[in-house]
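Predict structure. Input: R2 protein, 216 residues.
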Amino acid sequence: MNSTANRNPTHDPERTAGGDGANFVAATYPGPFRCPLCATIIAVGHNFLEHMRVHGKEVHFLCGKCSKSWPTIHSVACHYSKCGRQITRSVRQPPVAVEDRPHTVVCTDCGDQFTTARGLQLHRRNAHIEQFNADRPREKKARWSQFEVLALAKLEVQLPSNIVNINQVLSKLLFEKHGLTRNVEMIKGQRRKSRPPMDKQTQLQLKLRDLMNTGL
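Output follows.
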C-alpha cells in the first residue's frame, strides 16, 4: 500500500462521512483527481464533480498549497490563484471512513518520513519539483464538456471585438471564473471548431481587406 502511494502522486481524494451516513470526498485542487471508488483519473474539476455525483458523492476541495477546505470548485480556484503559501499547515479533517492511513510513508528522494500520503505528496511537490513532475501520470487530453463549451462562448461574447491575445485572455478567465484549466492551444482549437464555415464571398472579402491593409 505504501509503495503504491509513493509511485502514484495523483491527487487521491479521501472519502469522509458526515451525519446520517451522508458521504463526500475531499479532493486536492488543482488535480488531476482520482476517483476513490473506481480509480478513474479526471483532469478537470467540473468533470470530476459530475463523475462523483454519478457515484452519489459530493466533493469538498482542498487547496494544494495550504490545504484549506472549500465547498465549490469556483471558490477553491479563486483562492488558489491568490494563495502564496508554500508550506502546508495542519487542517482539521473529518474522520476517514474507509480505512486507516499508513503510519509512515518515506520520501524516496531524501528519506524524510510522513504520516500521510498527502503529506508526502505536498513535500515532494515543494522540495523535489522535478522528480515530482516526472512521476506524475501523463494526462490524456480531456474532451470539452458541454459546460466548458458554453462557458467559453459566453466569456468570448463579453469581450470587445478588438481585443488582442484573446486566447490567453480566455484561458485566464476560464480559470478565474470557473476553475477550468485549458491552455491557449486548446482554446484556439475549440474556438476554430465552434466557428461556422465561411462562404467563398466572405473569404474573398477577408483577403481583399488584408491586401488593402498591407498597401498592395
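The longest helix spans residues 200-214.
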